[in-house]
Amino acid sequence: MSGRDPQTPEFEILEHPADIGFRVRGQTLAQLFENAAAALQSIAVESDEVRAAEQFALSAVAPDAEALLVNWLNEVLFWSDGRGIAFREFRVQELEPTHVSGIGLGEARDPARHRAKLIVKAATYHQLKLERSPEGWLAEVFLDI
Amino acid sequence: MAPTFQIESIDGLRYRIPRNAERGMRTDVRVYASPALIDQIMKDRSLEQAMNVATLPGIVGSSLAMPDIHQGYGFPIGGVAAMDFETGVVSPGGVGFDINCGVRLVRTNLIEKDVRARLRELVNQVFRDVPCGTGSSGFVRIQAKELDHVLAKGARWMIDNGYGEPSDAEYAEAGGALAGADPDCVSARAKERGRPQLGTLGSGNHFLEIQFVEKLHEPSAAAAMGLEPGQVVILIHSGSRGLGHQVCTDYVAEMNGAMQRYNITLPDRQLACAPAQSREGQAYLKAMQAAANFAWANRQAILHFLRPAFRKVFGESARLSLVYDVCHNIAKREFHQVAGERREVLVHRKGATRAFPPGHAEIPSKYRAIGQPVLVPGSMGTASWILAGAEGAMQETFGSVCHGAGRLLSRTAAAKGRDAKQVERKLEEQGIIVRSESRQGIVEEIPEAYKDVDEVIDVVDRAGLARKVARLRPMGVIKG
């Protein structure tokens, strides 16, 4: 099964007995971070009608790349679940081994237009994978639902 | 898929995976299951996760697996692990992202026949008055400063501020508040995320169910809980919402950074932990207790909004009274006998319910003679159970039992080829009305996605961990 929103880069849903995971790719590590954030958004909210009306600054720090990806996704989750923002797309502007920053383009979530699919509690380290692939980079992330 | 480990039956109810030093296990895994359940359990990776838990420093006794065990992240769901409080670790992943996810049982003075006659009206009213939180905030309006009081005092603060009746706090585990909570250990982000969500159900497997008492198995214990056949009750399953999720996220990140300092290496990063007595361990425990208090406040607020919903439909004489409230995602400091010695341990219950036996001092006096009420929801189309804690739980499982039926199908497998309308129709044919904010929420939580709750309860009862008191059947289901 792949992402249903044509605006969202392709990702695959990974099965888990209680929760849900996704596999996502990117030509560069920065693109992978952007695509992973978009996959997370797409799993949580029906995002077809989200407008890129405002910019929101996003950042994360971590001791290594895997933890950086988890913390980046949890940053996105804080903005969506904690601050009620629905995102259209993500742009990574700076990516260092222990730091990532960028912007999310979106708007305040309107439940009538952006219906919830699932409340995601967190991105986890469970079976986390981040590796180079022939096309660039590949990651697998499991979310707690 | 053949297992990569040895598992042996002890007596057809208990199974053992012997300690394997090569895998870093410090102790055995003990599983409670029937032969049929063990076959289902072996289909996912939950027992490997229970083996990973057995590697944690300071684990006391066995790494325990309840009959509803299924694969989680880090710890299995349905796992119990006790750590020495002085020398062992605390693991935020061993509690989970939904700190003090739990269940609250409320009895009404209504009977099944009367409620069935107005069931759709009631379900719609409750759906309006108890928000799920997927599309809107809750109806509890509190200032940032007041949130700190909620974190310190839990359900008690809600009751003192008009969100409940005085007796509501008495009948919750720990009286609805853990004394060791420190709001200053909860991040500003966690508070910001959680404050507007107070008084909301959440999504996933969270629910509010209107049920009736189908059958009593121990009438005297049921009488002590004020329950009789045909009586309508409500089961509320919710937790600490975004506040607890963020607390866990914050401390998993912190402990991942700290583990090297404490020379801890683990087979799964989601098990991230720190010594319970370390700065990180102590800060987490204080924050976790604050989040647990938020969860009790949350379930209290839901009960408060439920009362007028029932009165709107059934008139002013409709009465809702709290029977009990249990948490099933928590780490608790408790004293237990281990190999003849009294030990202070930190019992991690991840998808497991405390089940203290008759006579235990922490049980409200009204229930002390029968044992702690244990609330075990099944799935939205089957049954739920009320149990009472038994002595076997103290002897074998650090006073713990299962927390539900346990998932059998993944969310994607459950949703495959089904649509929400079809599921709703099928449940209606069985007399069950479902309302949900999300279509996905219905199809992913179909009864077929879960194990047979009756079989899970049989194991717990036959193993002497808890006693069957009453079986409940659903009539109305509200899902996030």
Can you walk me through this structure?
The complex is a heterodimer of chains A (145) and B (480). Chain A is α+β, with helices and mostly antiparallel strands. Chain A has one domain (11-144): Archease, Possible Chaperone, Chain: A, domain 1. Chain A contains two helices and eight strands, in the order E-E-H-E-H-E-E-E-E-E. Chain A has helices spanning 29-44, 65-82; strands at residues 11-15, 20-26, 54-61, 85-96, 99-108, 122-123, 129-133, 136-144. In chain A, strands 1, 2, 6, 7 and 8 form a five-stranded antiparallel beta sheet that branches. In chain A, strand 7 and strand 8 form a beta hairpin. The two termini of chain A are 18 Å apart. With 480 residues, chain B is α+β, with helices and mostly antiparallel strands. Chain B has helices at 35-41, 46-53, 112-117, 119-129, 144-153, 155-160, 167-170, 188-194, 219-224, 241-258, 279-314, 391-396, 411-415, 420-429, 439-443, 453-462, and strands at residues 8-9, 14-17, 29-32, 59-73, 75-84, 89-90, 102-111, 207-216, 231-238, 274-275, 320-327, 329-338, 341-350, 353-354, 373-376, 384-389, 400-401, 433-436, 466-479. The radius of gyration of chain B is 21 Å and the shape is globular. The mean pLDDT of chain B is 95. At the A-B interface, helix 2 of A face strand 4, helix 8, helix 10 and helix 13 of B.
